[in-house]
Amino acid sequence: MSAPRAGVLDLLRPSSLLHLVKVARFHVYSHALPRREITAGPGLRMSPTASLRNGSRIVLGRDVHVGERCCLWAGDATGRISLGDNALLGPEVFITASNYATRPGTPIMDQPRIEQDVSIGADVWLGARVTVVAGVTIGDGAVVGAGSVVTRSLPAGCIAVGAPARVVAWRDGRPVEDPPA
Hints:
Elements: H1 8-11, H2 14-37, E1 39-40, E2 45-46, E3 51-53, E4 58-60, E5 65-66, E6 71-73, E7 81-83, E8 88-89, E9 94-96, E10 98-100, E11 113-115, E12 118-120, E13 125-126, E14 131-132, E15 137-138, E16 143-144, E17 149-150, E18 158-161, E19 166-170
Parallel strand pairs: 1-4, 2-5, 3-6, 4-7, 5-8, 6-9, 7-12, 8-13, 9-14, 12-15, 13-16, 14-17, 16-18
Antiparallel strand pairs: 10-11, 18-19
């Protein structure tokens, strides 16, 4: 037996209308207002489902693509996010320039924030669901595979995967050095 279909009358219920107002308010808070504050080069393509925080500390180069449900969260006070020209963010990429401290005896919500800049170079591709944490630099031309977690800076021209992300290949085809023992 199939579920009943929602009708036009269901949309007019007070609870449905209240939910629509909440969704619209969140979109303005997390996308429309911060987008006005970002610095972006020409050719920016940003999904309307992208979530932005502290747009005045976000700089996007020319022809940047920000995919569906991406989150670019600059710090509240100092942490900045910059993306170079032709950077490509797949769906659900999460970049943050802020983290909480983890001192024992203090609830996480009461910990001070640690803010560090994030710099993503030109011609970088971050695959679907990549996470980039505060303080990371990703060099020009790097590719980061889907689902990777970037906790340390990555060099230009590398192909990196994993959690934490590590270099597994180079775009120019040179061999990857054996990891130290």
